[in-house]
Amino acid sequence: LPGARSAVAGAFVMDRPTSYADATSYNNFYEFGTDKADPTEHAHTLKTRPWTVSIEGECGRPGRFDIEALLKLAPMEERLYRLRCVEGWSMVIPWTGYSLAELLKQAQPTSKAKYVEFTSLADRSQMPGVRSGVLDWPYVEGLRIDEAMHPLAMLVFGMYGEMLPNQNGAPLRLALPWKYGFKSAKSIVKIRFVEKEPMSSWTKAAQQEYGFYSNVNPSVPHPRWSQAAERRIGEDGLFSKKRPTLMFNGYEAQVGQLYAGMDLKRFY
Amino acid sequence: MKLLLSTAPQASASLPAPSGGRTARGLVQAALLSRAAKPLLFIACLLPLAWLVYGAFANQLGANPAEALIRRLGDWTLRGLMIALAITPLRELSGLAALARFRRMLGLFTFSYASLHLLAYGWLDMGLDFGDIGRDIAKRPFILMGFTAWLLLLPLAATSFNRAIRLLGAKRWQALHKAVYAISVIALMHFIWMRAGKHNFAEPAVYGVILAALLGWRVYRRLRGKKPRLG
């Protein structure tokens, strides 16, 4: 999947990309199992064609988009983003896609559209993990509308110049580089504009541990571990000290103003 | 150990042997009593560690080898606890008294895996920053649980030699070593709590069922043992 180098500010980090092998074999995609090796093993059963995404809720032009139409909706860009998992590890991934705003604007959200809710596919026949009760399926995530409209919020169709592998959220997913990885919903089938803050799946599962915002923040620890440092997959040696985690995962210059004046300990 | 061995032949002799089963059990018992049994078990107990060390050097532990090492050492600690706790029920149910010979080695290996698990966490996860480790233990219940379980294992490991049994007296020694019941429950809670945030209880549930059976058997036997006196 070819893409031109993105001109969006902050779209290219200076970090070394994680190896394709690591990025496609160490995944959290619970629809295919809770072990990190499960998605790469089981996701081949996912059928990504035909695929439609329905756009619903508080917008002037709701409708259904075919994946082929979405691929042509805006010019493809390549961006190199950091990905920080809430578990304390990180990767650097070259994504291909475009700003989520390109799609959202087409739907013409109304003034009531304060938030955007994303729903992932939950099909037992294709996704063995959906049979387990680990989460309340389908997987739901949400963003405030201004977060969703931020140019760094990316709708992703490919990585490493190729179409997205199934285990990484094919055929389309989000990449929100300043938030913990689980906020970036995978295999999206529904995008809904809503007035009230959506309840995301992880917040529903453990409110104390996973807040709605889940911005990368080294000074707000997870209840069971510190978030001050992270291990860069494939790069940091077994015995090297973990590297410090950056505020907003290093994207503070770009996204900091979205949260001006907010108590980030309260809105974690 | 002497104490346990001395009871072994009597125990096996006093059990009624069903026809046909006697020779099979006799053979197993002989194998368990053979001189090769302990060295073989020793090697078997080293295999998981050897596999992990090989995996670390051969880059076979996946994308996050540090996490894999910490978790698998923890897994083997739990398994070690379960195996050690299974010896007594197995011995009594099968009549293979010689099984008791292996309890100490299993216990010490379990302690070793627990120590390596702690070391791997402290080194690979916390960079041997003792200030950070101390704060982590104080702040996070599941880390505190794991650390407590390891601390409680210390006196058991320290009194695992024959002289300690003589010094303490068999009764006191046995009472002390019953702490392993509490330790296994704490270790399991450490695992459950670790998985709690991700709602992933499938594996802890398996250990939970096994541990419940192992401890439940002891409770059941105790209650049944007392019944005649009550009646």
TrEMBL record, chain B:
Name of one Pfam family that matches: Ferric_reduct
Function of the protein: Part of the MsrPQ system that repairs oxidized periplasmic proteins containing methionine sulfoxide residues (Met-O), using respiratory chain electrons. Thus protects these proteins from oxidative-stress damage caused by reactive species of oxygen and chlorine generated by the host defense mechanisms. MsrPQ is essential for the maintenance of envelope integrity under bleach stress, rescuing a wide series of structurally unrelated periplasmic proteins from methionine oxidation.
Native source species: Pelomonas aquatica
Residue stretches spanning the membrane: 40-58, 78-99, 106-124, 144-163, 175-193, 205-220
Family: Belongs to the MsrQ family.
Protein name: Protein-methionine-sulfoxide reductase heme-binding subunit MsrQ
Cofactor descriptive note: Binds 1 heme b (iron(II)-protoporphyrin IX) group per subunit. Binds 1 FMN per subunit.
Main location, first listed in the record: membrane
Subunit structure: Heterodimer of a catalytic subunit (MsrP) and a heme-binding subunit (MsrQ).
Gene name for this UniProt entry: msrQ
Subcellular location, record wording: Cell membrane; Membrane
GO molecular function, one term: electron transfer activity
